[in-house]
Write a structure and sequence with these properties.
This protein is α+β, with helices and mostly antiparallel strands. It has five helices and 17 strands. It starts with a strand and ends with a strand.
């Protein structure tokens, strides 16, 4: 097994950048999800589960703690620009403010904003993109603090620092969805691994296993339950598509990819071997 793709997402829920190497520390990919947007109408840090249009933006790291954001019309703005929040809000057609990552001790920063409805079941079905006859994921796979906070305090990750997908999984999705655009960007992996001669979704069997990847060591967790984000429009070539999530829920027990955590920080480069230990 070896690393075929590496991704970094400087702004939460925006399309990220494909890179040749990443640095992993205890919290995840260095430079990953260091910015997010706060919903100025409903409160709280929000991602594309609620503000789906965020997936039409892209971001890349430009150093000094800032990111360059490409707006849907192709114009760019830096997180350091005085008018960055106003320009993102105008393009998103919703008032938001760009906010940099804050310390874990700043709990109020990470508290969830108001729900769209007082009906908890309807709220969860909206977030996870489930129809009335589809199951919701088992919530005990997620960190318990997510009941109160949008992300684990001190991070802008949805749940865990890494998401790993295999090339085999992407091929299997393409075969199962011939009328859909199966774009890797829909699934937002940190690391894509090529497993020779593998078919289907081999990463589902990695839960609890540890592997070296480059000079880092990671521990694989549970398969990742997918939400409405995989259905979002990215651009004209990758339109919104509910069929992607229907297949995942119906045929893949709701999952694509596997979560992972960092046991030993280090550097991972494209082409590095992945070896179970």
């Amino acid at each position: 097994m070896d690393v075929s793709q590496l991704w970094r997402y400087p702004v939460k829920s925006m399309i990220g950048e494909r890179v040749e190497r990443i640095e992993l520390d205890e919290l995840g990919v260095v430079g990953d999800r260091t910015w997010a947007v706060r919903d100025l109408e409903r409160g709280g840090i929000r991602g594309a589960k609620k503000l789906g249009g965020l997936m039409r933006f892209a971001a890349r790291d430009i150093g000094d703690g800032h990111a360059e954001i490409t707006l849907p019309d192709g114009d760019t703005v830096s997180t350091g620009d005085d008018d960055a929040s106003e320009r993102v809000s105008a393009s998103l057609e919703h008032p938001v403010r760009l906010e940099a990552l804050r310390p874990a001790s700043d709990l109020d920063h990470y508290r969830r904003g108001a729900p769209d409805t007082d009906d908890l079941l309807a709220e969860m079905r909206s977030i996870f993109g489930r129809t009335d006859d589809e199951p919701l994921p088992a919530f005990d796979v997620f960190p318990s603090e997510l009941a109160e906070f949008e992300s684990p305090p001190g991070t802008y990750y949805d749940a865990f620092p890494l998401l790993v997908v295999t090339e085999s999984a992407l091929r299997a999705l393409s075969a199962a969805l011939p009328d859909s655009v199966v774009d890797v960007r829909r699934f937002r992996p940190s690391i894509v691994i090529d497993v020779d001669d593998s078919v289907g979704h081999p990463e589902f069997d990695w839960t609890g296993r540890t592997a070296t990847i480059g000079s880092a060591t990671v521990e694989f967790g549970v398969p990742c339950p997918r939400c409405v984000m995989v259905t979002r429009e990215i651009d004209a070539a990758t339109p919104g598509d509910r069929d992607v999530l229907r297949h995942i829920v119906r045929d893949l027990d709701q999952n694509v990819g596997v979560y992972a955590s960092i046991s030993t920080p280090g550097t991972v480069a494209r082409g590095d071997a992945v070896e179970f230990i």
